[in-house]
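Appendix B. One record, verbatim.
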Amino acid sequence: QEESVERAALYADIQTHVKEKTAQFISGALDIDANWDSYIAEMEKMGIERAIEITQGAYERYLAR
């Protein structure tokens, strides 16, 4: 239950970030080659690795049933 709440909070911010940057990359407002590393770094700061860890753990528990 706690992991679910944590994951939801993390993904809410991450999804917003991804949508904004995707639009900027597609429109040309941001150069994908020049800004890709900072895009990834921002997601890491937002906790993407923790969100993936929670998701992976839930998936593994599901498979173990």
